[in-house]
Structure formats: structure tokens, C-alpha cells
Write a structure and sequence with these properties.
With 84 residues, the chain is of the alpha+beta class. Helix content is 46%, strand content 14%. It has a domain at 11-59: Ribbon (Pemi-like Protein 1, Chain: D). It has helices spanning 19-24, 47-58, 63-83, and strands spanning 33-38, 41-46. It has a two-stranded antiparallel ribbon with strand order 1-2. The radius of gyration is 21 Å and the shape is elongated.
Amino acid sequence: MGGTHALTMGDRGRLVIPAEVRSDLNWEQGTRLILIQTGTGASLMSIDQARALIKAQIGDRDLVAELIAERHTEAQAELDKAAR
């Protein structure tokens, strides 16, 4: 598994993903894919692979709770500033 594969862009931007890659990644007809464009290129993965990658990157963090706590801190700072 893994490797580099040369692809050629076809009509209307179509790509043919080699059978070996599709087999290795368990991509079948109808598999939903996501293309992530970055400043250095692009990555192609299934939606399920993208979810797993994001989960691995954030771990067990509760991003919503972190955002709410951050907003509360900012709001309290604004209240303290206005009270002066």
C-alpha cells in the first residue's frame, strides 16, 4: 500500500484512479471523495478517511466547549473594560 501514481487529466477534468489504489483504499463506485486544496498542492481522500484524519488531529478535545469558554473569557474582559 502506498506509492506514487501518475495520472492524466482527461475530458472535463476527469481522473481515472488506478484499480490498485481503489482496491487498497476500498474505494468502490459511489464512494464519496473530498479534494483538499492547499498552498502546496492537493490531497484526495474519502469522506470517511477525512473524518478519521480530523478526529486523529483533534483527539478528544471538545472544540465547542473550548470556543464557548473562549467567548465567555472575551465577554468578561469586555465587561471589565466597560466597568472601568
